[in-house]
Amino acid sequence: MDIFLSKAVLDFFIAFGIVLGGAMLGGIGAVVSLQPPTDTMVEIADRIKIWALAAAVGGTIDPMRVIESNMLGGNLSPAIKQILYLVFAFLGAHMGSELVKWVCGK
């Protein structure tokens, strides 16, 4: 259980960091290109969420294959773990997006 929890927390913070970092660097790019940074940051945070989720769980479709093969084979434990990894990564990406919206006043 210790390995599962550490990977879940890691997935959460990877997704959180991708959204937060991408929005912040996008805001810097908006300032350089003379665009409103807060609008750009909120837009980037919303658009990058799905990519943060994919990157946090490994960057490929392999987690979906693990879920499919284990569900069809009757092994529910590995499939449930993969689903929970996806949930933790989604929560991290969503919290990063909400933090950007909060900081930008949206």
From TrEMBL:
It holds the Pfam family Spore_YtrH. Keywords: Membrane, Transmembrane, Transmembrane helix. The chain crosses the membrane at residues 12-32, 83-104. InterPro entries: Spore_YtrH (IPR025689). It comes from the Bacteria. This is Anti-sigma factor RsiW.
